[in-house]
Amino acid sequence: MATTGSCFLVGVVSQKTLANSGDSRVVLGRNIHNIGEIAAIQLSPEQNANMEDLRQALKAQHPNDPQIFVLKYGVWRIKGIIQVSRSIGDSYMKHAQYNREPISAKFRISEPMNMPILSVNPSIITHHLQPSDFFLIFASDGLWEYLGKQQAIEIVRGHLHSGSAKRLIKAALHEAARK
Question: Which residues form a coiled coil (predicted)?
Fold first, then answer.
């Protein structure tokens, strides 16, 4: 638990209200009246180092740490290690007592070490569902890295009752193979 972690995405639909808490992304497909199209509306904010506003907030919390963000292979990483800013676990990035032996030196964070670096607190969004809200897509960055939200909405719209999840995965894998 000290050097491993996980993100989560939870959605609760109750009485025409969706409550979302998580680091992945929820995208809503909304029927646009009179034109027969579906709009893709992102309901949950992404909590990863590639988001400029998140980088600015963490830099403000860690002003004496020039290595709070490191660009590796074209991707921003917190302390050069992890993209997400919120997780369950990853204790060595939240509490100094877990950032020492017996943890392997390759996992330890060097000074300056103003803890916590990561947060366990989810972002919580509430969205009141409208009659024109058609469907929701819950997915991790593994899907959204390769598919745009409108592209995903179109895939689901075309196959609502016939394996839309499988088609999303297949489309993302196809895009990943092209890169």
Answer: none
